[in-house]
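This section describes the prediction task in plain terms. A model, or a person checking by hand, is given the sequence of a single protein chain and must write out its three-dimensional structure as a string of tokens. No templates, partner chains or ligands are provided. The sample shown here is typical of the held-out split.
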Amino acid sequence: MNYYNYFTEIEEHFVKRRGKHLLISPMDWRLIAEWKDAGVPLQVALRGIDTAMDSFFSRHRRGNTKLNSLCYCHDAVMAEYAEYQDSRVGEPREGLKKQNDSTEQETFPGAPNKNEVSEALKYLTAIIQEIKTLAVEQRLCESAIEGANRVLERLEEIVQPLQTNARIDLEVIDKDLEIVDAILVDALLNGVSAEQIDEWEHDAKTELKVYRKKLPKEMYRKIYKNYMRGKVHQKFNIREFSLFRL
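The expected answer:
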């Protein structure tokens, strides 16, 4: 199983169980990332989705109610994960570590194939060009320009091993991109009016209402922040800093 399969397997399983071919939202992808970061194994997440979907369809047999968000499955996934952890209480630490390492290696190997490297390089090169175009075509404040230049320098460093076929780990690169993205977004926000930000915040509270009800506060804050980040990318016409959607 390659680097991306944790996300695609969950998406495909949820879409299949839902019965309607409608891809999940970027916010749901962020939720999957939170499951991954929490250490939820793929099969545990899939079992949780099955439990949630079985419960949903048993209560909505007529099909009049639509299930549009993976967030509905969060509680069941975390319950399955809690059972998974409880079942391993008392196992030798070394044995548990080897098992976790094996699962992580199966899901996120550090050696991507040539096509994945090529696609990642193409994607990041396009982002670099978009930022250069942004600096030329839009009137950015001094702090925004400074932030954009810092981001360009770091992106060039990230791209270099992809160009030279050095040993790389796409998961590590994606985490680097998340940090670089935060720098860029913070810089560009200096060029966004207070009225525009207020509008985005209002939209976020409306669109993420289901997440706020279902998720722990810390996880909701991360997804909320990701929503606002997406608005900045959209405004300045810069694609998302993530390799998950390649």
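For orientation: The two ends are 16 Å apart (CA to CA).
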